Amino acid sequence: MKRFYAPQQASHAPELELHNGAFTAYAEVPQRAEMILAAIGGAVPPPDRGLAPIAAVHDAAYLDFLRDAPTLWRAAGRPGDAIPYAFPIVGRRPLALSRIDALLGAHAFDATTPITERTWDAAYWSAQTALAATHAVLEGERAAFALCRPPGHHAGRDYCGGYCHVNVAAVAAQAARDAGRARVAVLDIDYHHGNGTQDIFYDRGDVFYASVHADPASDYPFYWGHADERGAGEGEGATLNLPLPRGAALAGFRAAQARALDAIAAFGADFLVLSFGADTWEGDPISHFRLTTGDFAVLAGDVAATGLPCAIVMEGGYAVNALGANVASLLSGFEG
Ligand code: OKP
Ligand code: ZN
């Protein structure tokens, strides 16, 4: 299977995150990509397809903000990484804000996603990596793997959050649409619900979003991913949320994924983006499912059995020492 990764992605390395009331070491570390690369035997750098495919799913003002935030943060005399602390929950609308703290909150939904001087470049190249895998599949590969980092599925059109800045799965899905695939599906099997991907396509009938994830009643991102969220307008019925309780293991996860795959088949998808997180693994430090390393091959086998051309994009997975084996297992299930 073709595998893609851009060295620029490694430069995004925030210091600290707000975790359960304390500042702790940032979990989404560059070493994650190194471990995956070592386990899968390396990857090829993607070509630069420019800003247009990213701007197809994100607001221009938001992308400007991602680029400018570190400069404004420094200009305000702040040390460390840019982190928001106030959010416009009374109603998000285009206000003329000037202070960096106001801009940060207006373009984020949590305080766990710092922006560094290298964030924009890393997120840009993470998206190029997703595009390379997408185009490889559009050109005839059955499947291709994008080692995306930073991840993307929590980022919406105009907001970041959950370690995510540019929604690489949405960039991939939109690129497939723009290349002429009529009905694209995103299957999100990260432990956490992909609220950003859901939001981006919520009112569209041409991109189906299905997610198997930890019940947001107990788990991040809390305010999205509930079973009654089914899409709106033209997108009514084109969102499927399958929350599972903490402790879910292969049997429960596999049955939920089968429901998602049935719905994707009924939708008539002609292209699949697999938003893959390995944080469903039993030893993940911030998650609570019980999948084993071997289970990822089983789940991948079920996805591959649909016969859908598939671009795989990397999302979460924070047990750094197990991450390589878990990703290698997933890819083996596609090839086997
Ligand atoms: C990103 B992805 C809990 C902190 C939660 C955010 C988790 C982001 C997960 N104390 N931090 O979906 O793997
Ligand atoms: Zn996750």
Describe the model.
- Helix content is 36%, strand content 13%.
- The chain has 336 residues and is of the alpha/beta class.
- The chain has one domain (2-58, 116-335): 3-Layer(aba) Sandwich (Arginase, Chain A).
- A seven-stranded parallel β-sheet has the order 1-4-9-8-5-6-7, sandwiched between helices.
- α7 links the parallel β5 and β6 (207-214).
- Bound molecules: {5-[(3-aminopropyl)amino]pentyl}boronic acid and zinc ion (ZN).
- {5-[(3-aminopropyl)amino]pentyl}boronic acid binds next to loops.
- Keywords: Hydrolase, Metal-binding, Zinc.
Summarize the topology:
Layout lengths: L1 E3 L11 E4 L2 E4 L5 H10 L11 H4 L4 H16 L24 H7 L12 H20 L4 E4 L21 H11 L5 E5 L6 H7 L5 E8 L24 E6 L5 H18 L3 E6 L16 H12 L5 E5 L5 H16 L1
Helix pairs in contact: 1-10, 3-4, 5-6, 8-9, 9-10
Bound molecules: {5-[(3-aminopropyl)amino]pentyl}boronic acid and zinc ion.
Zinc ion binds next to loops.
The separation of the N and C termini measures 11 Å
Rg over CA atoms, rounded to whole Å, is 18 Å
Give the CATH superfamily. Answer: Histone deacetylase domain
CATH architecture: 3-Layer(aba) Sandwich
- The total domain count is 1
